[in-house]
Amino acid sequence: MEGIVLPAHPLCLDEHRHFDEDNQRLLTEYYIASGAGGVAVGVHSTQFEIRDPQHNLFEKVLEVTANVIAEKKLERPFLKIAGICGPIEQAIEEAKIAVSYGYDMGLLSMGGLHNATEEEILERTEAVAQVIPVFGFYLQPSVGGRVFSYDFWTKFVEIKNVEAIKCASFNRYQTLDVVRAIAYSSRKEDIALYTGNDDNIINDLLAVYRFDVNGKQEEVQFKGGLLGHWAVWTRKAVELIREVKSFKEKPTIEKWRELQILANQTTDANAIIFDVANDFKGCIPGIHEVLRRQGLMKGIWCLNPEEILSLGQFDELNRIERDYPWLNDNDFVTEFLLERR
After folding, report:
1. How many Cα atoms occupy the beta-carbon half-sphere of 314 within 13 Å?
2. How confident is the model at residue 140, as a pLDDT?
3. Are 296 and 26 spatial neighbours (Cβ–Cβ below 8 Å)?
């Protein structure tokens, strides 16, 4: 509810596409050192293929991440969020695995359930919520999600143990459905709204929504973000959250203008990292390439060998690094890596 940075944790592999535990631990340590408020593991950025029998990495990745966090003995809250996928039986089993490793919440994906009715998906959510607190997830259709009705969200937000919602619809109208449902909910004060709209990060964080609810003006705001984009340049994301909070306390026209410029530059960078020009085909390799350049990953290998940078994406990454050097945290990463040696 205070508003934190939640990176979607990538998967580290070696040149043989085998799990690289040492590199995975390094990346988790980087997120902790950056000041993030937690990590989401087993999500899209971690590659859904970790669940495939030939890889069987879902539980292993959750275990390694949980161990790193425990070893740090942090004196501040640090959320462990597990991605949960699949039909109801699979989702419940993944939730139980997450609980066994001390995870705080389950980011419940709606992807791959196109044949299920909205009522069946609500029943699935209720079942998972009995195992682990649920972080809801509105995923854009272009990467496997689906569009839900406003009525669906009004019912979703009333489910006990739903504690947050990541809105990653990449659509203003669909985002508004979620926000309005929260405003009208009897559980409005219990649900933290987080942006997953990587195309609109800063404007989501700045947005204030107001609705007339039974004659009372109710406001809803995004608290923070759970983002694949924040898997890179995470220290800058932490600074951004602080900057937005400061602006909301003491807004000025000058600061508003600065944040609007930064918002558009961030969206430009995200378009390249996520490979929007090619329908997100190079999204995960794009994240990996940024981390590789910083020395936080050894390569951009994915479990699916067909997931590679798209034609021209490498050069465009050069462009955004050249044009927007203030967006990266290269100096912080250099210090982090030196201290870790």
Report:
1. 6
2. 80
3. yes
Q: What angle do CA 232, 96, 79 make, to 5 degrees?
A: 35
Output the six-digit token pair for 149: 């009705």
Amino acid identity at 273 = I
Residue 309 has pLDDT above 90, yes or no: yes
User: Per-residue pLDDT tens for 265-291?
Assistant: 999 999 999 999 999 999 999 999 999
Question: Measured on CA atoms in the order 202, 283, 136, 164, is the torsion positive or negative?
Answer: negative
* List of residues 6+ apart from 335 with CB closer than 8 A: none
DSSP string, 130-153: TTS-EEEEEE-GGGT-----HHHH
Distance separating alpha carbons of residues 7 and 218, to the nearest angstrom: 29
**Alpha-carbon torsion, ordered 47, 48, 53, 54, to 10 deg:** -30
For the record, the structure tokens of 274 come out as 């996520």
Confirm whether pTM is higher than 0.70.
yes
Q: What is the pLDDT of residues 212-245, one digit of tens each?
A: 999 999 999 999 999 999 999 999 999 999 999 9
Q: Distance from CA of residue 14 to its chain's centroid?
A: 24
Q: What's the Cα-to-Cα distance from 64 to each of 33, 46, 231, 303, rounded to whole Å?
A: 17, 13, 17, 18
Q: Give me the half-sphere count of Cα atoms (radius 13 Å) on the Cβ side of residue 280.
A: 12
Distance CA 268, CA 266 (A): 5
- Tell me if 3 sits within 8 A of 223, measured CB to CB: yes
Q: Are 222 and 195 in contact (CB under 8 A)?
A: yes
Tokens of 328: 């990266």
- For residue 333, what are its two tokens? 């990463």
| Whether 170 contacts 203, CB under 8 Å | no
Q: Which residue has the tokens 């496997």?
A: 144
Amino acid identity at 287: I
Size (the chain), residues: 341
Residue 336 pLDDT grade (very low, low, confident, very high; cuts 50, 70, 90): very high
